[in-house]
Amino acid sequence: MIRLYYWPGLQGRGEFIRLLLEDAGLPYVDVARVEGTAPLLAVMARPGLTPLAPPFVDVDGLVLAQVANILHFLAPRAGLVPEDDASRHHALQIQMTVTDLLAEVHDTHHPVSTALYYEDQRAEAKQRSRLFLQRRLPKFLGWFERIASAHGDVMLGAHSYVDLSMFQIIAGLRFAFPRAMAQQDVPCLSRIHDRVAARPRVAAYLASPRRLPFNNNGIFRHYPELDAE
Amino acid sequence: MIRLYYWPGLQGRGEFIRLLLEDAGLPYVDVARVEGTAPLLAVMARPGLTPLAPPFVDVDGLVLAQVANILHFLAPRAGLVPEDDASRHHALQIQMTVTDLLAEVHDTHHPVSTALYYEDQRAEAKQRSRLFLQRRLPKFLGWFERIASAHGDVMLGAHSYVDLSMFQIIAGLRFAFPRAMAQQDVPCLSRIHDRVAARPRVAAYLASPRRLPFNNNGIFRHYPELDAE
User: Fold this and answer.
1) A115 chain-B contacts, CB cut-off 8 A
2) Same structural domain for residues A74 and A174?
């Protein structure tokens, strides 16, 4: 049984792993939501190579951290990445670009430091968000859209974990920046979003209490003052 | 012949790939330094899945971007990662944490936007650097040091590309933040740095004109006002 360790109460980076596990129908325990955070902290306190931060997974005793690494490890076992080496490295390349985008989305509300509250870096957040929405968001989404368009509304030759990540990116960005997202021209990504949401196991997951709602503790936060005009 | 595409004139993210190629003695062309940037821009302008940004490599027609992905692909071919699956995913986990650290180092001098000059975000850079040096740098280095200490001055069971990355991180941080780095307690990482620098092919590379000096166009930049007191 796969054990997923992540902070309870938010989708955050853990959600990309949940979506893979749910879409594949792999049994797993969302540890901190069932057993509290003590087991998570206990794994991190072990000697040697342990995770710097959640999310991480324990698969038959192998503990792995970093979302893109975890997805790259689980996807072949889940049937959620093509079998050839080139496709797997292309999947990893796209997923690492998702990681980069997430770091920039996070920094729209925490441009100075994670050690400070949002309220203590509001002016900087406004400035950083404006430039993020003007320059970076269209760059990232344009790149994803171009790939989806070239492959026929999938990110690789067939449905894969990268499509699940595109679903989550689009859903999260629409929550955080509804006005800015209404201005983006991403028809292929929108169709990937809708197709993923309609996959039977994903649809069942999204309708279940296992799917936490977006909230302002996660990476995607909705502060109207940070959105486009 | 491996073709490495990166902006000329700076070490930047490309340096992690150069170090692997040099330590392994793999023949490669540093394309933009030999042929200018036109071929780099031409690859990026191709249809379909092309890199969002340099560095990227072309290995027998397979074009791959994202440093950690490239290293994960090349390392088995270079003999620079243990053969077992667990070690390869642990290497990737550590390298992805290097990626995270690099993004934070970059943002010490560009906390608001890459679209603005450093001079236009100097006050924010000072604030972000102070908190980075107080909280984040010791957290990252402490985690790397703990792993190195557990394994006997290597990051995995044997010398690997992750050790090369530790060399580059320590060298870069010492260039950017000499005063802050003098206060860090990282004896194992320092020994890894020195051991890597003394490896014959790395030593030859570092003494050659192929190794660019650190400068303020890269990720690691030395602005004395951003360093610790």
Assistant:
1) 131, 134-135
2) no
Q: Cβ–Cβ of B66/A115 closer than 8 Å?
A: no
Instruction: Please count the structural domains in chain B.
Output: 2
Closest CA–CA distance from residue B207 to any residue of chain A (Å): 32
Which of B52, B111, B128 lies at the smallest CB-CB distance from A97? B52
Q: Are B192 and B145 in contact, with CB atoms under 8 Å apart? A: no
Decide the pairing of beta strands B62-65 and A2-5. Answer: unpaired
Q: How far apart are CA B182 and CA B141, in angstroms?
A: 13
The residue segments making up the domain with residue B35 are 2-78
Per-residue pLDDT tens, chain B, 229 aa: give them.
999 999 999 999 999 999 999 999 999 999 999 999 999 999 999 988 999 999 999 999 999 999 999 999 999 999 999 999 999 999 999 999 999 999 999 999 998 888 889 999 999 899 999 999 999 999 999 999 999 999 999 999 999 999 999 999 999 999 999 999 999 999 999 999 999 999 999 999 999 999 999 999 999 999 999 999 9
Determine, yes or no, domain membership for A205: no
Q: Are A77 and A143 in contact (CB under 8 A)?
A: no
Cα–Cα separations (whole angstroms), residue A23 to A17, A18, B161: 10, 8, 34
Q: Are residues B95 and B146 in the same domain?
A: yes
pTM attached to this predicted model? 0.97
Cβ <8 Å between B96 and A49: no
User: Torsion over CA of A78, A171, A144 and A91, rounded to 10 degrees?
Assistant: -10
Which residues in chain B are closer than 8 Å to A72, comparing Cβ atoms?
89, 92
* Residue A77, min C-alpha distance to chain B (Å): 13
Give domain status of residue B209, yes or no: no
Minimum-distance CB partner of A66 among B49, B93, B150: B93
DSSP label at residue A213: P
Q: Say whether A131 and B143 touch across the interface (CB within 8 A).
A: no
Q: Which residue in the set A65, A97, A115 is minimally distant from B66, CB to CB?
A: A97
- B95 found inside a domain: yes
CATH code at A12?
Answer: 3.40.30.10
Q: Kindly state whether B93 is in contact with chain A, defined as any CB-CB distance less than 8 angstroms.
A: yes
Residue B169 domain-assigned (yes or no): yes
Q: Which residues of B touch A92 (CB under 8 A)?
A: 66, 69, 72
Tell me, what's the ipTM? Answer: 0.96
Q: Are the C-beta atoms of residues B209 and B163 closer than 8 Å to each other? A: no
Q: State the CB neighbour count (10 A cutoff) for residue B168.
A: 21
